[in-house]
Amino acid sequence: MNAVSGSNLEKVLAAGHFAVTAEVGPPRGPDIQAIKEKGEQVKGVADAFNVTDNQTAVVRMSSIAASKLLLEEGLEPVMQMVCRDRNRIAMQSDLLGAHALGLRNCLCLSGDHQSAGTSGKLKGHPGAKNVFDIDSIQLIAAVKGLRDGVQEGGDTITSPASFFIGAAWTPLGPPEKFRAIRLSKKIAAGADFIQTQAVYDMERFKEAMKRAMDMGLTEKTAILPGIIVPRSAGMLKYMNANVPGIEVPEAMIKRMADASDAKAEGLKIAVELIEMVKELPGAKGVHVQAIEAEHLLRDVIGKAGLLPRPQV
Amino acid sequence: MIFAEWKPVEELVEKLKGRKKILVAGCATCVAECAAGGEKEVDTMAPLISMGLKEKGIDAEITTVMVEKQCEYEFLDDIDAKVKDVDAVLSLACGIGVQAFAEQFPDTPIYPGVNTSGLTVREETGVWASRCAACGDCVLDETFGLCPVARCAKSLMNGPCGGTRKNGKCELNEETDCIWNKIVDRAEARGELETLATVRKTKNWSHARHGGPKKIVREDLKQ
């Protein structure tokens, strides 16, 4: 992989280090302080931090703005961009703006359907019109185009906007036989790195990785398996039943249920999973999430022997 | 066929109060097929409107008419006298029929009695489901006869998003199939899974509404 964007994540991977990414969700308001505090909490625990783009279709501070605020705090953001809310004109314009602001990583996603915003206590915007002018794979190609100095429509831009391009992979979601093919399409379109849906069933994930490896995909992109720190047996059960692509072995749910201190057990499980990912052929790093509990990241990543992060 | 369903009767009554002579006009084509605007529905709707208005103390004279095709001006010629005799029309035709009606009778206020919501197939008695989004750029040959534009909640062109449930349903709800899951199944059954491995380029949406209102002129047929 030739250096294309100059992002820290790209450099860490290029230097052959086992990369770590984590996630920082923007606040549901314009509070700069909230971003700064979260940034402070996780500074130094990962090589780059995903900044979500109105995830679950809940209106939050824009990914671009929150990414820039994190950058000012000395953290490297991975700006997420979904296809739900913007057409190809707005997306490319935002990408140029993001580049001008110093953002260098972009993760391209389809995006949750707008109906997902109506859950729990939130009303969301179920009546919103979605866009989906282009899909996540076409977005990857569009970002790649900007890197090559050409817009999606064919017009040139004044100077290239070089992003390190990311994409997602849900290897255990149905139709499973197609998931590796879909990954290959993302790579063909230009994905430099891949973050996966959360992995709990390491055996099944290993098989999926082997399929990707047999197709030569692990050589063409950097795959970072996703780990979500479990917090309770209920959370694992919920994810297993309701979150597409997440498979949690019964034994793990039982282990959490039987634990006298579920939170401590969850941390232990997360550390074990990361240790397994470190040994997994083809994995170039790990993407760690602690949902609504970012303060746990330092502990988990540290215990997995991945701190301090390399300076490149 | 074009699918439509009744607007709530209370909503229609609220809109129609103040009208003294109302013609309820059905259409014998698509809306009859989907049981929203056929003869039977006209005969059911008319007394409901009458009763609804009565409850509000309004005595309106409700008449009915069936049009073979409300979207064809020739068929509307036949009902000229009936329309001239009323001060409002409640049309149970689709949005195309209502507009043809309005064009033909510009002096008569017209109210849509149904909401038109798509191009559907009747899967079984009483069940209709989307099949076509009229995108103007058909890809059904490449997607094994299943339309991702109309039947994927995100109109994805390169395969399923990460939201496919364990049982092959869409992240939207348990009733909706993930159409890409079905496309992949059909491709595999035909031994052609690899045809879905090609990255499909961005779609040209200008063939649909996004290119502006459509007007198709066939010089070979024009008189």
Task: Considering the chains and any ligands shown, give keywords for the structure.
heterodimer, A: 312 residues, alpha/beta, TIM Barrel, eight-stranded parallel β-barrel, 12 helices, 14% strand, globular, B: 223 residues, Rossmann fold, 2 domains, four-stranded parallel β-sheet, three-stranded antiparallel β-sheet, 8 helices, 7 strands, 29% helix, elongated
Task: Give an account of the 3D structure.
The complex is a heterodimer of chains A (312) and B (223). Chain A is α/β, with parallel strands linked by helices and 312 residues long. Chain A has one domain (8-229, 280-292): Alpha-Beta Barrel (TIM Barrel), CATH 3.20.20.220. Chain A has helices at residues 8-14, 32-42, 63-72, 88-100, 136-147, 176-189, 202-214, 217-220, 233-242, 250-258, 262-279, 297-303; strands spanning 19-24, 48-51, 77-82, 105-109, 164-169, 193-198, 222-228, 285-289. The model of chain A has no long low-confidence stretch (mean pLDDT 97). Chain B is of the alpha/beta class and 223 residues long. Chain B has two domains: 2-117, Rossmann fold; 136-200, no CATH class. In chain B, 29% of the residues lie in helices and 19% in strands. Chain B has helices at residues 9-16, 30-33, 39-55, 73-77, 80-84, 95-104, 148-151, 179-189, and strands at residues 2-6, 21-27, 61-67, 88-91, 110-112, 114-124, 127-132. In chain B, strands 3-2-4-5 form a four-stranded parallel beta sheet, with helices on both faces. In chain B, strands 1-6-7 form a three-stranded antiparallel beta sheet. Chains A and B meet through helix 5 and helix 6 of A and helix 8 of B.
